[in-house]
Write a structure and sequence with these properties.
With 209 residues, the chain is α/β, with parallel strands linked by helices. The protein is built from 5 helices and 7 strands; from the N terminus they run αββαββββαβαα. The strands form 2 sheets. It has a 5-stranded mixed sheet with strand order 1-2-5-4-3, with helices on one face. The radius of gyration is 24 Å and the shape is elongated.
Amino acid sequence: MTAQTTATVVTDPFAASEAYATIHAAAIEAVGATFGDQLVETALFRGETTLVVRRERIVAILALLRDNPDLGFDRLSDLTAIDYLDLGRECRFNVVYHLMSRRTLARLRVRALVPEEELAIDSVVGLFPAANWPEREVYDLFGIHFAGHPDLKRILLPDDWDGHPLRKDYPIGAEEVQFSFNQDEIAEQYPHTLAAREERYFVAHPLNN
């Protein structure tokens, strides 16, 4: 009897489906053909496609991705930012747009380059009303200004807060975490009376008066 062996086919579990890959390729082609000078690079990783673009035409680029009938990326799932401090990137900051097509369920990521010397980019609230609060959050935590936003102000921190906490150079204060091996040592460092706790933790602010 001759033993038969079956070849094992190894596939990438993270690869995009054929249908999604086709839509991603169409998005790259459409943006490249229409805004060739604005498309800096494309990144393909684990089935995800990212278009890296310059900020100057961001509204028009997202409008193309939304309104092109072959693409239909008509849902803004999320909007955030990245700080690439000391990583040698062309621009320290990127604003990131996560798009989805409600018709095909395909997803696409767009990253817009924002230079540290001019922290501003056009608001996309006119295209995607859901961008309203995320743009305010990025403004609050990264300090990136969104030109044309209908109500650009802090959303998480008080108006008089100094700085933007999600920047990589924002000063971090911390206390040692208490575990079983150091619980007694840490407990001795904590204030044991109400007056001592108020003296240590009270922050002068109108809301605390």
